[in-house]
Specification:
Helix content of chain A: 25-40%
Number of helices of chain B: 8
Order of helices and strands of chain A: EEEHEEHEHHHHEHEHEEHHH
CATH superfamily of the largest domain in chain A: P-loop containing nucleotide triphosphate hydrolases
CATH architecture of the largest domain in chain A: 3-Layer(aba) Sandwich
Largest sheet of chain B: none
Oligomer: heterodimer
Strand order of the largest sheet of chain A: 6-7-8-3-9-10
Distance between the termini of chain B: 32 Å
Largest interface: A-B, 24 and 15 residues
Structural class of chain A: alpha/beta
Number of domains of chain B: 1
Order of helices and strands of chain B: HHHHHHHH
């Protein structure tokens, strides 16, 4: 990652023939797609489709069995390439360091890489926490926060990096609808403000259709379709239509009784 | 266990390479030092007191039967500083501190905190392993110095108050001074320092390779403690051979 923390623009991402399996079970069965600079690209799909494994490959936490991930044309798994770009990830669980306070968590990137003075880090931390609707929690520990608050702290921690590529793993799970809208708005704000490339993994159809420039539908380790929101909504594939039209209604509930 | 030795050596090498970063991580080193010292000093002193006592009791009663109780001080002093304190205190610390290190790093691995560090380009070896290995490498020899002193005192107490041995403090420590020299103490501390590095590296390695949920953490903790103890005992033999050769 670049350590100067100067504003940079988004990066392009190319995923080519990515394959991965665990204990002989294929999880990713040849994934191909491209994300343009500054684009908000959403990957939707049911649980167990391999979305989280895919996102870990994109940020370089996992090694593929075959295929590669290119950031600005450079393979992320090659030594030194990851350090060239400023990447951030918002984990589904938040993945906050439980031994640090909220403020220390959010400012960790700046303090560990010594990019700002402590006073300045404190100001930036407050600013980012306020942005995600959290005030007065800086000195609390993650164990004292609700699931939704942890997720917002994780988003604030990612924002501090001023990333070129930000990966969101289920950013609105565990959040109430109002905060989910705020998070969706922040994804778009970042795109406008620093032209960051965003890759969002979600089940949340409202979020996906609200923020996406393009959507990819993933099922059983494969990409079924890629297109704009309208193209995906009108896609004839029955699996996609089943996923998009799944709704719980009181009538269904009464029938089941 | 031995299949992991290669990985542990790699981790040790990366930790040694990261040593120039230790000043940047000094706050974490101090935190760990406090943690190790605070959690262990009392336990170490109690253990050492009774090790010295029981060793004096066994050897003292046998020696006094043959009229050799005057050499008890040297025997207890040498055994404690060269062997008993370094090995037993290291085993105690492997169980008490090594297990805590593995549990902490293991839960960080399981709950994706280490993944989060990596996405922020923060090297887990610099951030997590280096402060712990440096802290235990400093703290354990200090604890062993305490243990040696308390162990000698424990041995002396038994030598004085046990009616079958019944030698004076002065006689005990006079013989101890004649027999034990600084080189013996340094031998013990060198071994302790090697054991400390083993405990730190084994504990951190097991934490970093933890998989699964809470059960995985439990498994890693058990492996870390068992592997540390086995490696300490094996290394103890070879280090003793080496030190005897050098003498």
């Amino acid at each position: 990652m670049s350590e100067s923390l100067q504003p940079l623009t988004g990066v392009s991402v190319q995923v080519c023939g990515l394959r991965k399996g665990y204990a002989g079970q294929p999880v990713l069965k040849g994934i191909d797609f491209t994300v343009e600079r500054g684009e908000v690209f959403v990957i939707m799909g049911p649980s167990g489709a391999g979305k989280s494994v895919l996102i870990k490959h994109i940020i370089g936490l996992e090694q593929p069995e075959a295929g590669q991930v290119l950031i600005e044309g450079e393979p992320i798994h090659q030594p030194g390439v990851r350090d060239k770009f400023r990447l951030a990830m918002v984990f589904q669980s938040g993945a906050l360091l439980n031994s640090l306070t909220v403020g220390e968590n959010v400012g960790l990137y700046l303090s560990e890489h010594r990019l700002r003075k402590p006073v300045e880090i404190d100001r930036i931390v407050s600013e980012k926490l306020e942005l995600v609707g959290l005030t007065g929690v800086k000195h609390r520990f993650p164990s004292e926060l609700s699931g939704g608050m942890k997720k917002r702290v994780a988003i604030a921690r990612a924002l501090v990096i001023e990333p070129q590529l930000i990966l969101y793993d289920e950013p609105t799970s565990e959040l109430d609808p109002m905060i989910a809208v705020t998070i969706g708005g922040e994804i778009l704000n970042l795109k406008r403000r620093i032209h960051v490339t965003s890759l969002v993994i979600t089940h949340d159809r409202d979020l996906a259709f609200g923020v996406a420039d393009r959507v990819a539908m993933m099922y059983d380790g494969q990409i079924l379709a890629i297109g704009t929101v309208d193209e995906i909504k009108r896609h004839p594939d029955p699996l996609i239509q089943k996923f998009l039209s799944a709704n719980f209604s009181p009538i269904n509930h009464q029938k089941s009784l | 266990m031995f299949q992991n030795v290669g990985e542990m050596l790699v981790l040790l090498w990366r930790t040694l390479q990261a040593l120039p970063m230790v000043f940047r991580q000094r706050h974490k080193v101090f935190d760990q030092l406090f943690e190790i010292g605070n959690a262990s000093l009392l336990m170490v002193c109690i253990l050492a007191l009774f090790i010295g006592g029981v060793f004096a009791l066994h050897t003292g009663t046998e020696l006094s039967k043959n009229g050799l109780s005057s050499i008890l001080g040297g025997l207890v002093g040498l055994s404690i500083c060269k062997e008993l304190a370094p090995v037993l205190i290291s085993i105690l610390i492997a169980g008490r501190i090594g297990s805590a290190m593995t549990a902490e790093i293991g839960s960080m691995r399981v709950y994706q905190e280490i993944d989060a560090l990596q996405t922020m380009n923060i090297n887990p070896v610099h951030y997590l392993v280096l402060p712990r290995v440096v802290a235990i490498a400093i703290a354990l020899p200090i604890l062993v110095v305490f243990a040696v002193l308390v162990g000698w005192f424990g041995g002396a107490l038994v030598a004085v108050f046990n009616e079958k041995i019944a030698i004076s403090f002065r006689a005990f420590f006079s013989n101890l001074r004649d027999v034990v020299d600084m080189v013996d103490l340094l031998n013990g501390l060198f071994k302790t320092w090697c054991f400390a590095v083993i405990i730190g590296v084994v504990a951190c390695h097991q934490g970093l390779v933890t998989i699964g949920g809470p059960r995985g953490i439990g498994r890693s903790v058990t492996k870390a403690v068992v592997n540390s103890i086995v490696l300490i005992l094996i290394l103890d033999y070879f280090l003793t051979r080496l030190l005897l050769y050098l003498e």
